[in-house]
Write a structure and sequence with these properties.
The complex is a heterodimer of chains A (469) and B (107).
Chain A: H1 5-10, E1 20-24, H2 36-44, E2 49-55, H3 62-66, H4 73-90, E3 94-101, H5 105-122, E4 127-132, H6 138-146, E5 152-153, H7 162-166, E6 170-173, H8 178-185, E7 190-192, H9 198-208, H10 213-223, E8 239-243, E9 248-252, H11 261-268, E10 277-280, E11 283-286, E12 291-296, E13 299-303, E14 306-309, E15 314-333, H12 336-340, H13 342-357, E16 362-369, E17 389-397, H14 400-415, E18 430-431, E19 437-452, E20 462-467
Parallel strand pairs in A: 1-2, 2-3, 3-7, 4-7
Antiparallel strand pairs in A: 1-8, 4-20, 5-19, 6-15, 8-9, 9-13, 10-11, 11-14, 12-13, 15-17, 15-18, 15-19, 16-17
Chain B: E1 3-5, H1 6-9, E2 12-17, E3 22-28, H2 32-41, H3 46-53, E4 60-66, E5 71-77, E6 103-105
Antiparallel strand pairs in B: 1-6, 2-3, 3-5, 4-5
The chains are: A alpha+beta (469), B alpha+beta (107).
Amino acid sequence: MPVSTQQRRSAVRTDNEPSLRIVCPNGHLGFAPIKTGSFVIGCAAEPDLICADSGSCDVGPVPLGADISSSPRRWQEHDLEVMLLASRRLGVPMIIGSAGDTGTNSRVDLFVEILRDLARKHGLKKFRIGYFYSEVGKEELRRRIRDGDAVEGLDDRPALDLATLDATDRVVAVAGVHPYIKLLDEGADVIIGGRSSDCAIFAAPAIRCGFPAGLAYFYGKILECASFCAEPYGAKESVLGEITMDDVKVTAMLPEQRCTIASVAGHAMYERANPFYEHFLGGHLDMSECHYEQYDDRTTRITGPRYVPARELRVKLEGSGKIGERYVGIVGVRDPYTIAHIDDVIGWARQQAREQLGDSGYELHFTVYGRDAILGELEPLKATPAHEIGIVVQGIARTRELAEEACMIGTRQMFYARLPRVKGTAGGVAFLLDEVMPASPAYRWTLNHTMRVDDPLELFPTFLTEAGV
Amino acid sequence: MATRTLAEIAKTIRSKNAGVDRITFDLIFAERADYELVRRSGVVSRSAVCRIFGIEDSRITDYVEFDPALAIKFTIRRTVPSGSPGDGDTFGSQQYGPLLGIEVPEG
């Protein structure tokens, strides 16, 4: 097994060279299982902490609104078990951020419960679990709006109004490093975080140990997606990060992967509108002066990130609101004439829905695969659809019954569409199945906003409990 | 004039959500010469992006050339937030398709 220079150095670490080393095995814990081979290698390098983020807005608005996880509990248990056993064996803290995708209170409770079960299952020695909540009550937001304390929109959204708030089911605030540092100070061995910035999970222990904030937040930014900062591409593999007073180093743990200048710099700009800035509660990271160098074959060294404190503490809010119950139907079309006139077919189906259900109280969405399903209006080739197309019909309404009926009309009436020169008069579309299928309720992101706070801990109550025997 | 496509020249061409209201695109090159070639050619300028996707310039929120990663990066506004009914790409991860075939004149 190739051993990086970074691992060799660890054996000769001295107090004169303070450093903090973190292994990160997964960029979205629970979403797809940790690959354990490279995690074992990472743990053999004797890290000071084991940390992973579990959150993401990528899963869409349904999990937050419906207060569910996006993946089965067994996958979450797998990842937590792998990390917990390593953490207890090595005697180093473990930190999980944004529990269960959304970081709602119920997801934090779920992860704490899983940890307790795992501790019992493995007869682990007693350890302290620290956790914090991130949900914000709608009444608090209502009060702010009435008091004129604007809940400002991000990314060109208008300030939050009462109508949008009323249409919202659940809101989480995005924590910074503060609750993590508090829980570490209080002696937590394992921390389960509510919704928080990805980078805060890793920056918190580094800042607490006195490392410069600019390096610490960058350290978090580069570690939070695990092997996404390595090449060749391969997700769910571990990376090892080291922060010193002068630099950050990151090493791929899978023998086949390397952290290169290109892969690390490429990752620094991943999932953000602008590669130079990362915002979080308390300030932002300025990466415009970052310098990347190849430290050894599989390690990249970074210097130069700067932390810029915020003039006003503003916390990011994420909110999701239910639109309605949802059914889905699927049809296919092979007749070139029908394909060329598919918008007329959809128009016919919509008209039948209007005649039966009226103009409002339901939504119908037609997504045309083989033409523009993925890019929509951005699709340059929408005028030249494929030789066969598939249409996914979504019917959405307040009740399941109405959603099913709307979806059924939208799907079945495509079969009866009246195109003037169609040759096939026995049915205009092919049904994958004649039924329509119950789906998850439809939600939308109602909040992508910020709110002023006086104290970075005020929305994030912390708790300590014990597990093990 | 001889041309190569962006798919032939770039190491990585990808798209992804940047928050729930934005999609960001990354073109990353392995060699500085390729990065410079594409930059100079102008085939992925702001106005080219508008042409390729048929959008107004106001939809583009950021357009950055990022030297440390040999990358060209631009970000566009979504018309509906990710995962809303009718949105066909919840992660924003398949929006880069139209970039692959863009022809880049050699030298």
